[in-house]
Amino acid sequence: MTLKEVDSTNTFLKNILSNSKPVPDGTVIMAEHQYAGRGQRENTWHAEPGKNLTFSILLNPTFLSAQQQFDLTRAVSMGVYDALYPLLRDNLKIKWPNDIYYGDKKIGGMLIENILQGTQIKHSIIGIGLNVNQENFAAGTGNATSIKKILQKDYELKNILAEICSNIEAYYLQLKAGRFEFVRNLYLSRLYWLNERRKFKSNGHVFEGSIKNVKDNGLLVIEKETGEQTYNLKEIEFLNR
Ligand code: BTN
Hints:
Low-confidence stretches: none
Number of helices: 5
Order of helices and strands: EHEEEEHEEEEHHHEEEEE
Radius of gyration: 18 Å
Oligomer: single chain
Bound molecules: biotin
Distance between the termini: 42 Å
């Protein structure tokens, strides 16, 4: 379903679910204009109306436990990655945990909101924002780019959406079949800055280190001079210079 205008496609789906209306597995809500898009870490997500993909997918992955939430993040990130790979090739990376990068610039991100029931995931609202045909980005969104800026061509939003959805479905089915290791290894191999000596900041302290792994639960493992340390999203910042 496509909405002309909505605050946030994630909030829209959440509201339907909280009114106890049944929503079929795989429902996709896309917005032409999302005026209060939400990003990670309480950020807002801005996208010029009509030029970008802003959509949410509802899945009911009751076969996944709360501890396996990051496996869904991996599957969705890999689905977006594979959909874009034929266009963007080897400069395409996944910046931990789930940003989609081209070189050092961000072209997309996702906000996955899980609703748990006991130890299991009952619903997962998977919100994806991808910059497609937008050419200008406001100051302050310094490292944003789009497919148009990279390839100098306009793309049909619905075609890219269809590719993303079918690739996410493929990875979702891998999880359903219990192939967690396959998805984990592939996700790791696509990571931005994997095994590269880089600068990071944590707790006001700048240090050099190298990304070595992502724990099953999604924590980032960085090897430092003092040994390996794990970080969650709020604890670590990647420093580009
Ligand atoms: C991020 O990189 O911070 C995540 C951005 C997620 C944006 C998408 S757009 C569709 C869906 N609805 C929202 O309000 N957010 C997500």
